[in-house]
Amino acid sequence: MKKQEIILTKRDNIIHMVKFTFFSISAGLIQIGTFTLLFEVFKSRESIAYLIALVLSVLWNFTLNRKFTFKSAANIPVAMTKVAIYYAIFTPLSTWWVEELTQIGWNEYLVVGLTMLTNFVTEFLYTRFVVYRNQINTAVKKEEVIEE
Prior knowledge:
Layout: H1 10-41, H2 46-69, H3 76-103, H4 108-131, H5 142-147
C-alpha cells in the first residue's frame, strides 16, 4: 500500500505555529513554577532545579505538540530521541552564551528572554522540519481529514 503524501496549507502551518506558541507558553510556566518550587521551597541546588524544570517542560511540550499541534503517529522513542539531540546541543550552548553575555554586562533578564525566544523559534523549526517532517497529521482519523 502506497503511503499517501499529506499536503499542508498555509492555514495549517499558521495553526501549527499558534498552537506551538500556546503550548510553549504553558511549558515555560511549568518550567518557571517547577524551578521556583524546587529552588525556593525545597532549597535544591540551582543547577538541579533548572535541569528538573527543563526536563518537565520539554516532556510537557513534546507530548502536547505531538498530540494536538502536529497530530503525529511518529514512533515516540525516535521522535523523543530527536528532541533530546536538539536539547543536547541547545542546553550547553545556551548555558555558555548566557554566562558569556552576562559577564560582559548584558542584563540577565534580557539574555534569558532572548535565549527563551531563540529556543522557541529554533525548537519550532526543528520539531516541524526534523522531528515530524513527514509525520504531520498521521494520527488523525480519515473522517477528520475529509471534513477539513
